[in-house]
Design goal:
The complex is a heterodimer of chains A (284) and B (312). Chain A is of the alpha/beta class. In chain A, strands 1-2-3-5-4 form a five-stranded parallel beta sheet, with helices on both faces. Chain B has twelve helices and twelve strands. In chain B, β8, α8 and β9 form a beta-alpha-beta unit. In chain B, α1 packs parallel to α7, α8 packs across α12 and α9 packs across α10. Chain B is globular, with a radius of gyration of 19 Å. The relative contact order of chain B is 0.12. Classes of the chains: A alpha/beta (284), B alpha/beta (312). Chains A and B meet through α5 and α6 of A and α3 and α5 of B.
């Protein structure tokens, strides 16, 4: 053994307060986990605000016609965060809310990873990491070719950024100057086994995206105003694809889930845990 | 065969604005005319095959028909997950044109020899696998790939393969092509192995053994009915492929025959690479000879299968 010891980076801190709606979305996620008996809790909680702003304020879509040609395309490349997406899609009317309570059940359409063709509003089946951005590049190239004005948004995770294929897609997006493509990175600094710093450090993360040819912004990924402002500035650069690095907290919103890797994926959620989760998400 | 195939992609693109082409880092001048005349549908995206499959899937979900060409092993071995998920799971209309099927790249060694491509893709739901025998057959195949539903893998032979097919039987994806009748033995072949299969049948005829030859340019979906119908009339069945004997044509035929539950069992032998990485360089023909993929060897095997069991 030689050299200096690896310094453990402190867990990220985020003091942004969650409003009523953000808590309500998380409560629904908890009820889905209760119904399905499992789910990626921390991963879903960290991207609630990103998805909420996208679906409330940014994306063009028609729940009655999910394949409407002029819709904006949204790909959740970190497919394991789908609980949050399902709640938003149900709220917007892509499918009845009753589907949420059949999460991971044999008679439901909502599984542990989102599927194209099965779930209205899902543009690509994801779950295996490092695929979604390439789909997004394909959608963006197509929009440019067809001279269509719709935009493409892809949410990736920090752990996913370990995948080489993601960076292949990033190179390709920059080569084609895809200003109609925006990546949102859920940077919660935790992956399955440990922190991103320990498993495979992506720092300097924002610089990597810049070096790969993206216009980069960094925001508090739980701050509605910051997210909204950044997403309203899209395209961030007329000659580049955009990357919005969203600094988030895995498990944001519940004290005993935040930065707690035991909650990355839960396959047995006890009734008292559900009770404790809901208690912290009371909307007074 | 590769030239014919890519020329056809160009012709199809001229007729149909949905046709796109993506290459990885192909040889200089590849599809030059396509690029010059239709630059908005021509892409050369570098040595990043995984991404190429993904962007093709994205384009296909938007209604485009995307032809991809690169070396077969990179499509099959390297991009297996992208092909399984991005293409097959989404039933994407992407056509994978794999250069160097079998041992075409003999001088380049095992990294470039596609000896397991059929086995790899045969396990994927919704995948279609075609291996034409020559350039003429390629010309009949390619127009059918435009409006076909789901992903297709086109296995390319070497350029200048002898022309052995004819247009007496219309080409249909998913259908076998009977090339020769014979009541004693059945030789089932795919791709460029049709030529040695026909040569072997000819030589066997002179020895008093009538061998039928069934050409299978489509390996998946597998034409079980035709194979069983032909096999039912033969005493012995051999399969011939420029591929590992595990998982390819021979396995598919064996599965079909086993499940046909014939009252009298068939004599059967798979001829292909004996589960090895080719260990020599040289030429494709040289490696075929080394591993017994020759008319002479097929004759010997069929003769031995036609012997009564107690005479062997």
């Amino acid at each position: 053994m030689s050299g200096s010891p690896i310094l453990a980076k402190a867990p990220p801190i985020n003091t942004t307060l969650l409003d009523r709606r953000s808590k309500e979305i998380r409560r629904k996620i908890v009820r889905m986990i209760e119904a399905g008996g499992r789910g990626h809790v921390g991963s879903a909680f960290s991207l609630v605000e990103m998805l909420r702003v996208l679906y409330d304020d940014i994306l063009k879509y028609d729940p009655a016609n999910p394949r409407w040609r002029e819709r904006d395309r949204f790909v959740l490349s970190k497919g394991h965060g789908c609980l949050a997406l399902y709640v938003l899609l149900a709220e917007k009317g892509f499918f009845p809310e009753a589907e949420l309570w059949k999460f991971c059940k044999s008679d439901g359409i909502l599984g542990g990873h989102p599927e194209f063709g099965k779930v209205p509003g899902i543009e690509a089946s994801t779950g295996s990491l490092g695929h979604g951005l390439s789909f997004g590049v394909g959608f963006a190239l197509n929009a440019r070719h067809d001279q269509a004005s719709h935009r493409i948004f892809v949410v990736c995770s920090d752990g996913e950024s370990n995948e080489g294929s993601l960076w292949e897609a990033a190179l390709c997006a920059a080569k084609h100057k895809l200003n109609n493509l925006t990546v949102l990175v859920d940077y919660n600094k935790q992956q399955s086994y440990s922190t991103t710093y320990e498993v495979l450090d992506m720092e300097p993360f924002a610089d990597k995206w810049r070096a790969f040819g993206f216009a980069v912004e960094e925001v508090d990924g739980h701050n509605i105003e910051e997210l909204r402002a950044a997403l309203r500035r899209v395209p961030l650069d007329s000659q580049k694809p955009g990357a919005i690095i969203c600094h988030t907290i895995k498990g944001k919103g519940v004290s005993f889930v935040e930065n707690n890797l035991n909650w990355h994926h839960k396959n047995k959620v006890a009734p008292d845990e559900v009770k404790a989760l809901l208690a912290e998400l009371e909307t007074d | 065969m590769r030239k014919t195939c890519l020329d056809m992609v160009y012709e199809l693109a001229r007729k149909d604005r949905r046709v796109f082409f993506i290459g990885s880092d192909l040889g200089i001048g590849t599809l030059k005319q396509f690029k010059a005349e239709m630059p908005d549908r021509f892409f050369m995206e570098g040595v990043s095959e995984a991404n190429i499959i993904g962007i093709a899937a994205g384009l296909a979900l938007e209604g485009k028909i995307v032809y991809i060409n690169t070396i077969a092993t990179f499509l099959t071995r390297r991009c297996f997950e992208q092909v399984a998920l991005d293409l097959c799971l989404h039933n994407a209309n992407v056509r994978l044109i794999g250069s160097g099927g079998g041992m075409v790249y003999a001088p380049l060694g095992p990294t470039h020899e596609a000896i397991d491509d059929i086995a790899i893709f045969r396990a994927l739901p919704r995948m279609t696998i075609v291996a034409p025998a020559d350039a003429d057959e390629m010309r009949r195949l390619m127009p059918l790939t435009v409006d076909y539903s789901g992903p297709i893998y086109v296995r390319l032979g070497k350029g200048g393969d002898p022309i052995v097919t004819n247009d007496r039987t219309p080409f249909q994806i998913g259908k076998t092509i009977p090339m020769r009748d014979g009541s004693d033995a059945l030789i089932v072949s795919t791709g460029v192995m049709l030529k040695p299969a026909l040569d072997a049948a000819e030589a066997l005829g002179k020895e008093g053994i009538e061998a039928a030859v069934l050409h299978m340019p489509t390996i998946k979906p597998f034409d079980t009915e035709a194979v069983i119908e032909r096999a039912s009339r033969a005493h012995a069945v051999v399969t011939l492929e420029e591929h590992n004997i595990i998982g390819g044509l021979g396995s598919a035929v064996a599965e079909a025959i086993a499940e046909a539950n014939f009252d009298a069992p068939k004599r059967f032998k798979r001829i292909g690479l004996p589960d090895v990485f080719p260990d020599k360089y040289g030429s494709q023909a040289g490696l075929m000879a080394r591993y017994g993929l020759t008319a002479e060897r097929i004759v010997e095997i069929v003769q031995s299968l036609m012997q009564p069991a107690n005479a062997k």
